[in-house]
Design a protein that fits this description.
This protein has 174 residues and is of the alpha/beta class. The chain contains 4 helices and 8 strands; from the N terminus they run βαβββααβαβββ.
């Protein structure tokens, strides 16, 4: 697996980089073709924060873990991504080409497979508005995201509340 290591406002020790390569090697058994992993280290609120994103066969696996040490965060991250793969194994094997993704036969363990998706369909009308108006509307509705038509670009966009309390904007790429 190709691994990219990023550090936000810090330097990552060589021993920690080697540990990342060693731990991510454990996930190679799920991918016949080479996957790409991005690991980002940062410190937030006196805690070690680790983000792991793996891209394989046009599918993303991602987790973000905050812990006392980067080693603990890395262990938890690997477990979380493996749990994502095992929990959605049937759906993933249907969606992905057989040659791109492989689930070993020893997928036992205490992982319950994700049940069928229950989708609630909702329609609504929307008017063009600014990002600030969309955030205000989202907060008034006490939602974590809000779909709206951007008044400037006339594109359908989504604003959302992030875990860190900030807001995010998703807009289509032109």
């Amino acid at each position: 697996m190709k691994v990219t290591i990023n550090a936000r406002q810090m330097t990552v020790r060589e021993s920690l980089k080697e540990l990342v390569f060693e731990k991510l090697e454990k996930l190679d058994k799920y991918f016949q073709r080479e996957g790409e992993a991005t690991v980002t280290f940062s410190r937030k609120r006196n805690k070690e924060n680790l983000e792991v994103t793996i891209s394989a066969a046009n599918t993303l696996f991602r987790c973000e873990v905050e812990d006392e040490t980067f080693q603990n965060a890395l262990d938890r991250s690997i477990d979380m991504i493996e749990r994502q793969i095992r929990k959605n194994k049937t759906r993933l094997s249907k969606r992905l080409r057989e040659e791109a993704f492989e689930l070993p036969y020893e997928t036992g363990g205490d992982f319950e497979e994700e049940p069928e998706f229950h989708i609630r369909h909702k329609t609504f009308t929307y008017k063009p508005m600014s990002v600030d108006e969309a955030i205000l509307q989202m907060n008034l509705l006490d939602h974590t995201f809000f779909v709206f038509k951007d008044a400037e670009t006339e594109e359908v966009c989504v604003v959302y509340k992030r875990k860190d309390g900030d807001y995010g904007l998703i807009s289509p790429e032109n």
